[in-house]
# Entry
Amino acid sequence: MQVSTTFRQMEQSDALKAYAEEKLERVTKYIDEPVSVQVYFAVEKKIRHIVEIVITARGISTKASEATNDMYAAIDAVIDKIERQLKRYKEKIKAHKPNGDEHGRQISKKIFQAESLDENAEPVVIRTKIETAKPMSVEEAVMQMDLLHKDFLVFTDSSSSEIKVLYRRKDGNFGLIEPQQS
# Structure
């Protein structure tokens, strides 16, 4: 875990930095790969101690801050807040996972050479990749797209067993492509 600290309106303290790093070890059980953690320490009006923590991991970004009259109490409170956020996130992911008896459909993704599409010749396939369109609800697909920072996602609708494509529109909203019922 890569931890960086910033001290605002106060002197740097190795003891505070070590205490925060020790407490941050508690959150590693909720996330697989913490990429970076930024800890901000600040003092306002000599009595208000503020601690803000920003965690950026693969697919997850969370932020919390707490203000008390003691810096160590603020660290404890903000770590508790982050831990609750990550626990809620983990439970949400578990609740959206389909049960083991539903299997996704295999889909093939092909990448064509651009020059071969311009001519009247047969398109040249550069690469083919087979993926599984996992069964999930539209809400879970939106959540997965946000967590994985993808522009589109192909999935099997868990309620209708149809393949659907969810994509991010230029205006920030989402679009859903569904097969037409015949």
